[in-house]
Amino acid sequence: MTSFRSSISLTSIDGQHKALAEVGEIHVIVGPMFAGKTTALLRRIKSESSKGRNVAMIKSAKDTRYAKDSVVTHDGLKFPCWALPDLTSFQHKFGDDAYQKLDVIGIDEAQFFEDLYDFCCKAVDHDGKTVIVAGLDGDYLRRSFGSVLDIIPLADTVTKLTARCELCGKRAFFTLRKTAETQTELIGGADVYMPVCRQHYMNGQVVKEAARNVLESCKVQANSHSEITTVV
């Protein structure tokens, strides 16, 4: 009887070990714009590829700044990718057989994928893939952007990168929007955004608010003058 129980126990444990061996990993890279997130992602993907692992890169179809079918860093490094409107469609478009042989999936500009959490759960916990995610952790107002922060509890590692403040050269943790647009999703580069330290982020917000108030005041005065002229 004891021998029988031991046999069952060992078989059960061996089955658990096999199941554990099939799960994957998730690594998250976050930070402000111009912090080198895409560069770090490409470095990891190329390293995995050099080890003989099958890799694939995904980016949002919304990001067409540098190339449609490539992930491109700000300094021009490129890597071919799948540009998709969502992550759920990746396995179907990539092909089931090819997906089964895939070891590593890189996701750039992850903040634009609403289905990021569900995709990572399935790819890592059920399909045994290693997923490396790069994206903004906050928007220009320092609020959570997309689902990037939602996958932190799923992650094996989290890397927070910083840039260099364009105004003083100190470490930059935040992204300052230069323009007056207020929508959360506004794709752009150095013409729209700059990395800044905390002090210059706060100063920049004050300056922008003051400029906005001046512009609004000018509009009100212009409208009032137009109404008076019309009446006269």
Give the class from helix and strand content and strand pairing: alpha/beta
Q: What's the CATH C level?
A: Alpha Beta
C-alpha-based Rg, rounded: 24 Å
Distance N to C terminus: 108 Å
Count of alpha and pi helical runs: 6
**CATH fourth-tier homologous superfamily:** P-loop containing nucleotide triphosphate hydrolases
**Regions with little confidence, pLDDT below 50 for 5+ residues:** 1-11, 228-232
Short description:
GO terms for molecular function: ATP binding; identical protein binding; metal ion binding; thymidine kinase activity. The chain has 232 residues and is an alpha/beta fold.
For the structure shown, list the relevant keywords.
6 helices; two-stranded antiparallel sheet; Rossmann fold; disordered C terminus; about 230 residues; alpha/beta
Characterization of this structure:
With 232 residues, the protein is an alpha/beta fold. The protein has one domain: 3-Layer(aba) Sandwich (Rossmann fold). The protein is 39% helix and 21% strand. The chain is built from six helices and twelve strands. The chain has helices at 2-21, 37-50, 90-94, 96-101, 116-126, 198-231; strands at 25-30, 55-60, 70-72, 78-80, 82-84, 104-108, 130-135, 157-160, 163-164, 171-172, 174-177, 193-196. The strands form four sheets. A six-stranded parallel sheet has the order 5-2-6-7-1-8, sandwiched between helices. The chain has a two-stranded antiparallel sheet with strand order 3-4. Strands 9-10 form a two-stranded antiparallel sheet. Strand 9 and strand 10 (171-172) form a beta hairpin. It starts with a helix and ends with a helix.
